Amino acid sequence: LLGRFGDELNLPVYIVGGFVRDLLMGNPNLDLDVVVERDGLSFAEHAAKRLEATLVKHEKFLTASLFLKDGTRIDVATARTEYYEAPTELPQVEVSTIKKDLYRRDFTINAMAIKLNQKDFGLLLDFFGAKKDLENKVVRCLHTLSFVEDPTRILRAVRFETRFSFRIEERTSQLMLEAVRQGYLEKVSGQRLRQEFEKILEEPKWLAALKRLSDFEVIKRMFPGVFYTVTMEQKLRSLADFLPWAEEFFGNVQRFYAVMFVFLEYHGDTAIEEIKARYGLSSKFVDELKLLKKMIVPLSKVISNKLNFSDIYKMTKGISPEGFCYIAAYLDPESQEYLKQFLTKLRETKLRYVDGRIIVQKFALKPSRLIGELLEEVYCAKLDGSIDDDQEMQFVEKK
Ligand code: CTP
């Protein structure tokens, strides 16, 4: 259909980027990136009308997004060349041909297009040997300034390499390392870097990707003071082992923060503040980090030694899901199991028959802090399994 709309306006239309790459690899991809030669905006308006889609235009960038009723999103761009007045600044945009549009992209494997106009429908445009690189499982940049112009591509290279089990090509590796060493990552906004970093953490093989980032000296550049040692890797591995369970259990775990606990545990306050400002870390996280830093060793011992659930409960009040993942980073598999049992029991345990009001009435007491403490004792006894639902009141009476 998109090709036909192009024909109606006499405009060449292509599908490009990740969609083409994934199509050739046999992977599903619902991200539709369309490039139109000469005039993407008119094409987008025309297509939006015909498809009864909602249109959002970004005139300045000559791009638009179509939102179809079935939820599909189609991004439309005008074929363009970008040139950079200064590295890492936003590029200047100039209308051009599909070939030049593809050349400004990050890697060969992302720089293919398929023509959609009826005459050449399905024609694959591969100007830079991308098919061969796909066959050889190689991530290769298109030109020597690629990482200087957009240093976030350093992280993207690692993401694609680990996702597809490819290898970053030798020359590309050199260019990445040079850009890192010349300080180009520091020129990118923290927000963009964090976004790319978070995308890496969403990959199933994120742990391997972090190792690669450290090979390219990205970790210590992005997070000054973080040294990717064997010990750190072990902790991250334990965290990675625990994560699937935690994500299922808590529903949502922000991997970024879970990893930040491990990265920043030895940082002093000033260093933490700097990283907080750069990457927009929440104050809640920083407070929890400061607290957990002090508690992590005793806490992991309490769990490894399988102390009572009530002891763990008292030490972990207010800890976030990410904080629990950090604790798990310190635990061997058996102790992680104990932590899971604790969290499960914690969630199940509720006071069924007693609450503050009932105690006040039944024993003709004035509301006070002591009652709160008493309720806490009942709760702990239930957590430890020393009383069950029916024994709640008996326990209170005895006290
Ligand atoms: N692109 C680029 N440089 C970047 C980001 C994107 O050249 N820093 C180009 C690539 O051609 C990429 C396309 O824009 O294929 C779309 O970007 P994006 O949606 O981020 O990546 P995908 O390749 O679609 O990857 P993913 O599967 O992760 O969505």
UniProtKB/TrEMBL annotation:
Entry superkingdom: Bacteria
Name under which the protein is recorded: tRNA nucleotidyltransferase
Covered range of the whole protein: 467 to 865 of 877
Signal sequence residues: none
Family, similarity comment: Belongs to the tRNA nucleotidyltransferase/poly(A) polymerase family.
